[in-house]
């Protein structure tokens, strides 16, 4: 059973589309009911039939294959029972009726009051409709669904839904539901049928170019700054250290008394909390690769048009790249002389899955307590757990063993002193904590415009499709992060503080802190979410998002800095 799920996920990757999207005249076209939820939070969804709607007369058709990613995203397709066949118009007719009682009346009033929208699918095209309308203290519900379906040859290329006929909600009303279908020939190409869901007015290319130009200027400035500072200072340092002949002994001693060279016996000292550090760095490598791969796949595969395929791809790539996590985490751990490698590997393998599942579980728990809503299906939990145990864990193990054996030997350019050097008193702004806090400001500055678009497409009814821009912004973010972290580390080492590993990781990762703060701003000024559930939901997933971003930035910053540190210490002769 468990393996079936895994095979199924692989199968969905290979064969994302179970329909061919080609219909014969008169062939059944299925209207799937998906979810219903408040307009102001697209992510909070309940099954369509959790509201007292009724099913049409047609008997349920064959089995629908639900994929794991759909289950995780809360896609729960159910047959509507409406009789729709290809190219056959259906005149307005009743398909079912509901009789309200106290309970269903309250449920509907609640939905109307909170601007609930429902979502349906015809041939993978999403359709949204509003449940009802408030007028003063009267609540109305839309009862007539008019479908205008456009076809091009044998394919469906467009669906318009018009809600008509509002009925007032009263505690014991009998409400009939009606529908009608009109087929029209359309000139839209099948390949372009998703274009109408994209919103070029919102994702204005001008703004993206502006933002990228902005960040790009910052990159040039930063790279210039970094190279200028470093070139000047390093050259001065080298000159000072190498000009033995020109300096008398006294001056040489003085010159040797401060600066980054002083800590050469300590810079490569193993970090405290080594297992945790290697796990974070390993996970960071993996996440960076996954992010890049998903963005690139999406650019070429237009994955946003297929329901759930983005998430499937991400899960698949994540599982498949586990060896990367093991390799880099394991080799780092071994180089720093860690002994409990199994502990480190388990930490590496399960750090992110546990965080993600923990948050999801917590939010789910609140959802169940707060609204009586559906939980993440048990089957999906089992599937996720078996992916972790049977795919991610063994692959991480392989990576770790490889990493320990191929790259596990310490090869530092400087010997590590037996006794740690005391860290001298320094100015307050040279304290690691301040450096960490300051480190994230510039990288955040280079991404916050794009963050707005990403947040909006996640929390509102916009489909994000400008992945090319996302890729550019991601690359710029990486460059800015590396530059800033190198500068920070240089200042830290110059203050003769050798605790650069955690500092560089955290100062790069503190970008995430600003992203999380930005999400508060976004919540207050840009969304209309309310209530404990939506708030927990929003901040829970935002925390996860920020954390993942932080781990990525931290790792990239640490990587850049460690190359830099190795470089400067390997060119200095130590007697
Ligand atoms: C759907 O609505 C759009 C915009 O109102 C219209 O241009 C198009 O012709 C409609 N399509 C069908 C099939 O009715």
From TrEMBL:
Where, by residue number, does the polypeptide cross the bilayer? 209-231, 274-300, 315-334, 346-370, 376-402, 433-455, 467-493, 505-525, 537-559
> In the UniProt record, does the keyword Signal occur?
yes
- Which cellular component appears as one GO term in the record? membrane
Query: Family, per the entry?
Result: Belongs to the nonaspanin (TM9SF) (TC 9.A.2) family.
Keywords (alphabetical) are:
Membrane, Signal, Transmembrane, Transmembrane helix
Q: Does the keyword Metal-binding apply?
A: no
**Domain of life assignment:** Eukaryota
Protein name as annotated:
Transmembrane 9 superfamily member
Please report the record's description of how this protein sits within the membrane. Answer: Multi-pass membrane protein
* Gene that this polypeptide is encoded by: LOC113520572
* Gene Ontology BP, a term: protein localization to membrane
InterPro entries tied to this protein: EMP70
Where is it localised?
A: Membrane
> Where is it predominantly found?
membrane
Write the lineage as a comma-separated list.
Eukaryota, Metazoa, Ecdysozoa, Arthropoda, Hexapoda
Span of the secretion signal?
A: 1-16
């Amino acid at each position: 059973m468990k393996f079936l799920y895994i095979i199924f996920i692989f199968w969905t990757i290979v064969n994302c589309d179970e329909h061919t999207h080609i219909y014969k005249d008169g062939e059944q076209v299925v209207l799937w009911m998906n979810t219903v939820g408040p307009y102001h939070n697209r992510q909070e969804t309940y099954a369509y039939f959790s509201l007292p709607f009724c099913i049409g007369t047609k008997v349920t058709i064959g089995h629908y294959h639900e994929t794991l990613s759909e289950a995780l995203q809360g896609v729960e397709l159910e047959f509507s029972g409406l009789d729709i066949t290809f190219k056959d118009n259906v005149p307005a007719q009743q398909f079912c009726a509901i009789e309200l009682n106290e309970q269903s009346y309250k449920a509907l009033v609640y939905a109307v009051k909170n601007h609930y929208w429902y979502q349906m699918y015809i041939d993978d095209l999403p359709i949204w409709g509003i449940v009802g309308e408030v007028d003063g203290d009267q609540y109305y519900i839309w009862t007539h669904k008019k479908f205008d379906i456009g076809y091009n040859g044998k394919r469906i290329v467009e669906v318009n839904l018009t809600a008509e006929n509002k009925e007032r909600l009263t505690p014991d009303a009998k409400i009939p539901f009606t529908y009608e279908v009109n087929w029209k020939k359309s000139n839209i190409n099948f390949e372009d049928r998703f274009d109408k869901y994209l919103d070029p007015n919102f994702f204005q290319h001008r703004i993206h170019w502006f933002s990228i130009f902005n960040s790009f200027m910052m990159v040039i400035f930063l790279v210039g700054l970094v190279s200028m500072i470093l070139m000047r200072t390093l050259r001065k340092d080298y000159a000072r250290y190498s000009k033995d002949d020109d300096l008398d002994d006294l001056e040489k001693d003085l010159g040797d008394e401060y600066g980054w060279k002083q800590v050469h016996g300590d810079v490569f000292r193993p970090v405290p909390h080594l297992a945790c550090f290697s796990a974070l760095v390993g996970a960071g490598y993996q996440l960076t690769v996954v992010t890049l791969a998903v963005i690139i796949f999406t650019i070429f595969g237009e994955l946003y048009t297929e329901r759930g395929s983005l998430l499937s791809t991400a899960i698949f790539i994540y599982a498949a790249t586990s060896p990367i996590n093991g390799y880099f985490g394991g080799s780092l751990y071994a180089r720093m002389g860690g002994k409990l490698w199994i502990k480190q590997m388990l930490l590496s393998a399960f750090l992110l899955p546990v965080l993600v599942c923990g948050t999801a579980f917590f939010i789910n728990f609140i959802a169940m307590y707060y609204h009586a809503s559906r939980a993440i299906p048990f089957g999906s939990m089992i599937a996720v757990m078996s992916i972790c145990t049977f795919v991610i864990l063994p692959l991480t193990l392989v990576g770790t063993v490889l990493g320990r054996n191929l790259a596990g030997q310490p090869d530092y350019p400087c010997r590590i002193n037996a006794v740690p050097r005391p860290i001298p008193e320094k100015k307050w702004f040279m304290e690691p904590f301040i450096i960490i806090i300051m480190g994230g400001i510039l990288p955040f500055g280079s991404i916050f415009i794009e963050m707005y678009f990403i947040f909006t497409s996640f929390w509102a009814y916009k489909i994000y499709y400008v992945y090319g821009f996302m890729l550019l912004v991601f690359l710029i973010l990486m460059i800015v992060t590396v530059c800033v972290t190198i500068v920070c580390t240089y200042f830290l080492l110059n203050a003769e503080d050798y605790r650069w590993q955690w500092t560089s990781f955290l100062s790069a990762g503190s970008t995430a802190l600003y992203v999380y703060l930005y999400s508060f701003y976004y919540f207050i000024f840009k969304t209309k979410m309310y209530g404990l559930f939506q708030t927990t939901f929003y901040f829970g997933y935002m925390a996860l998002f920020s954390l993942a971003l932080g781990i990525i930035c931290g790792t990239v910053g640490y990587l850049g800095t460690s190359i830099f540190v190795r470089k400067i210490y390997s060119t200095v002769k130590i007697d």
